[in-house]
Amino acid sequence: MSHQSLEDAAVTFSLCRERLFGIAFRILNDSAAAEDIVQDAWVRWQTCDRDVVLDPPAFLTTTTKRLCINALQSARARHETHASPWLPDPVDPHADPQRRIEQCEALELAALTLLERLSPPERAAYVLREAFDYSYAEIAGIVEVTQANARQLVSRARKRLVAERREEPTGAEQKRMVVALTVAAHSGDLATLETVFTEDIAMAA
C-alpha cells in the first residue's frame, strides 16, 4: 500500500494528464477512447504502490502506452484482423518539432511492443520482413534458420503481437531497440538493426 497521499497522487497525475492524453490520442486517433485510457491510467496510478515508483511521469507514460496497446489489440480481436502497426515509419528529418516528438513516441511504442511480445528470432524476422521487405532467404541467413522456418517466425510473430506480453523489457533493452529502429527509419542503414537482432538471438540461445 502506498504511503503517498491520494491528494499528492492527484497533483502528480494532473501535471502529466495533458501529455498522457496526447500520447493516447496519437496512438488511438480517437479523443473519446484517449480520454478513457487516461481515466484507466488514473485508476492504475491510484491503486499501484507509488512508494516504489522512482519516476512518476515515466511510469504514467509507459502505463498509458500499454493501455493503448491493449485497447488496439482488443479492437483487432473483435474485428478478426491481425496486427502489423508495430513498425517504424520513415522519419522525416525536416518535420516540425511536434511531429518529431510524435515520431519518437511511435518508435518507443514499437520497441516496447516488439520487446514485450516477441522472441529475438521472431522480432528479427518480423521487422526485417514487414518493415524493410527482406526476402525470406535474407532473413534465414541472418537468423540462421531455413527459409521455411523464417516464414514460420514471421507468421508466429503476427499472432503473438495480439497476445499478452511475454516479458518485461529493461529500460536499457528498450533504449537499444529504439536507437536501432531510429537509425534504420531515419537513414535506411540497417546494419545496426541487424547487429542488434543477431546479438539478441545469440544471447537468447
Automatic annotation (TrEMBL):
<dbReference type="GO" id="GO:0016987">
    <property type="term" value="F:sigma factor activity"/>
</dbReference>
<keyword id="KW-0805">Transcription regulation</keyword>
<dbReference type="Pfam" id="PF04542">
    <property type="entry name" value="Sigma70_r2"/>
</dbReference>
<dbReference type="InterPro" id="IPR007627">
    <property type="entry name" value="RNA_pol_sigma70_r2"/>
</dbReference>
<dbReference type="GO" id="GO:0006352">
    <property type="term" value="P:DNA-templated transcription initiation"/>
</dbReference>
<feature type="domain" description="RNA polymerase sigma-70 region 2">
    <location>
        <begin position="16"/>
        <end position="76"/>
    </location>
</feature>
<protein>
    <submittedName>
        <fullName>Sigma-70 family RNA polymerase sigma factor</fullName>
    </submittedName>
</protein>
<keyword id="KW-0238">DNA-binding</keyword>
<keyword id="KW-0804">Transcription</keyword>
<keyword id="KW-0731">Sigma factor</keyword>
<dbReference type="InterPro" id="IPR013249">
    <property type="entry name" value="RNA_pol_sigma70_r4_t2"/>
</dbReference>
<dbReference type="Pfam" id="PF08281">
    <property type="entry name" value="Sigma70_r4_2"/>
</dbReference>
<dbReference type="InterPro" id="IPR052704">
    <property type="entry name" value="ECF_Sigma-70_Domain"/>
</dbReference>
<dbReference type="GO" id="GO:0003677">
    <property type="term" value="F:DNA binding"/>
</dbReference>
<dbReference type="InterPro" id="IPR014284">
    <property type="entry name" value="RNA_pol_sigma-70_dom"/>
</dbReference>
<feature type="domain" description="RNA polymerase sigma factor 70 region 4 type 2">
    <location>
        <begin position="110"/>
        <end position="161"/>
    </location>
</feature>
<dbReference type="InterPro" id="IPR013324">
    <property type="entry name" value="RNA_pol_sigma_r3/r4-like"/>
</dbReference>
<comment type="similarity">
    <text>Belongs to the sigma-70 factor family. ECF subfamily.</text>
</comment>
<dbReference type="InterPro" id="IPR013325">
    <property type="entry name" value="RNA_pol_sigma_r2"/>
</dbReference>
<dbReference type="InterPro" id="IPR036388">
    <property type="entry name" value="WH-like_DNA-bd_sf"/>
</dbReference>
